[in-house]
Amino acid sequence: MKTPIFIILACYLSIQGAALAAGDDDRLCFRGVNLSGAEYGDVNGIEGTNFFYPTPATTTYFAKKGFDTIRLPFRWERLQPTLGSDLDVLELQRLTSSVKGLRAQGFRVILDPHNFGYYGDLRIGSKELPARQLADFWIRLAVNFADDHGVIFGLMNEPYDIGAKDWLDAANGAIQGIRRVNAHNLILVPGTHWSGASSWTEDFGQGSNSDVIKGVLDPDNNFAIEFHQYLDVDSSGTHEECSNSEGAEQAIKNATVWLKENGFRGMIGEIGVSSAPECTQALSRIVDHLRANADTWLGFTYWAAGDWWPPSEPLNIQPQGDGDKPQLTALVDSMGKHRPDGPDCPGH
């Protein structure tokens, strides 16, 4: 007996729909790059000389390469010259203008106070810089971007010498402040000790990130845990070699297990390698792992590019007019297609 054509067509469409859905399973929400430069220079320096926001030429280059997310580092002291006081009008204008330009190109933007847990030489959690000052800063900043969920709030770049519990208190205070001003944007919460995946289970005082950071409190439940990972000997990203690539890959796999066990989402805020083939191959394998676990990992932002970076910087993928860097080629070849906007991708 022949099967009616409409049944065959229905079965075909069902199979095609399932295939399309399965094809989306390994698409990352955020495939990005750090456009570094605005976090450098003297606090009172001159834009374009001492510090740099991304230029249209740079942002267009990465848009054409298929990236959809920019992590935008800036300097807390320049944006808020006096603790507990208003944000600097001119610097806020620079930051806002840069964000608007990036959003107009279709990028999602991660705001990144690139201060390592400090304001000048004052450490968060100290008597001179109590945790409430971080909350105050984020309250003042968040209200400017609360209506654009394509802007993501990275609480702090790599706090490194603050105890895990003290850092969690500061992070939770900032989260509560952000939510109190009706900013419902995605928040990225790092751990202490540079937020390294390879050191996630180590206790450097007050417990390990793996134990303590489970205590993140967000009324919106709209946050992800931010990890950083480099592949060189000490996981610092300051060497051209990638002798710890195997350890770095395992650290990210371990982080995947931790995220799944705790029902969290993760984000790689920084990862970078030199152009050596063994390094770019390891980078591709890590991105492959993130894609294979796209239900848990939101994505990555590579470190780094930006108009400030000199050509001699080994991890740099800023265009220099002599062709794409091998690291960029590895990323483009491995990061997959843009994930269709939807409720499972924050900032859609």
Instruction: State the separation between the terminal residues, measured CA to CA.
Output: 48 Å
Rg of Cα set: 21 Å
- The CATH architecture term is Alpha-Beta Barrel
| Major sheet attributes | 8 strands, parallel, barrel
Q: Topology of this structure?
A:
Blueprint: H1 5-24, E1 30-35, H2 56-64, E2 69-74, H3 76-79, H4 89-104, E3 108-113, E4 118-119, E5 122-123, H5 132-142, E6 151-154, H6 164-180, E7 187-190, H7 209-212, E8 223-228, H8 245-262, E9 266-270, H9 277-292, E10 297-305, H10 326-334
Parallel strand pairs: 1-2, 1-10, 2-3, 3-6, 6-7, 7-8, 8-9, 9-10
Antiparallel strand pairs: 4-5
Helix pairs in contact: 5-6, 8-9, 9-10
Architecture overview:
The chain has 348 residues and is α/β, with parallel strands linked by helices. It contains ten helices and ten strands. The strands form two sheets. Strands 1-2-3-6-7-8-9-10 form an eight-stranded parallel beta barrel. Strand 6, helix 6 and strand 7 form a beta-alpha-beta unit.
